[in-house]
Design brief:
The chain has helices at about 20-30, 35-45, 50-55, 65-75, 75-80; strands spanning about 100, 110-115, 120-130, 135, 145-150, 155-160, 160-165, 170-175, 180, 190-195. It is an alpha+beta fold. Helix 1 packs across helix 3 (about 50-55) and helix 2 packs across helix 4 (about 65-75). The longest helix has 13 residues, at about 20-30. GO terms for molecular function: DNA binding; DNA-binding transcription factor activity.
Amino acid sequence: MKNKVNKMTEVGADIDFVSAAVSTSVKTYRQQQKLSLDELSRRAGVSKGMLVEIEKGSANPSIAILCKIAAALGLSVADIVNVSADPLAHLVAEADIPVLWQGEKGGTARLLAGTQGPDMIELWHWQMFPGEAFESPGHPQRTYELLHVEQGELTLKVDEQVLAVPCGSSAVAKTAAPHSYANLGAQPLIFTMAVAEIHS
């Protein structure tokens, strides 16, 4: 069964799709670090009420909120959704790959795999239907994204720079600044993305 952590990420989320892995992980890691909800709220810049709802499994956090919580805990998002590991080799079965964003027309962002935080690398698979877009407020400094378009055309915006990335092409972006991905074309967009976040 897929762990659909986030449907309609920013608004209109369906809490039936909240992954139990997220609520369990956030609470476990917070307690292991002996952090109160108030302290985690302060460090992450996420309201205490939202954290309470996440730990209860009754909220549907956006990718941006998951990123903030992970950074505050010194983790990766992959740690929180249980697709990270530290052995020489680790299999993430197809059924265990979570959907962390679902667009209004059915597009998805799936976190395929990732390393443990705080320095981390994540591998994502995105599908966006015409008219869909995703916006991020920006990640910590020294965050880089490598993108490769497999179908359609990606409109990538980083701060005020807009880049059209056609099928078969790749792009590199420093994503500490606000950024977005959009499908402004007439056909579905599919792209693979690697995210590297370096703290040391």
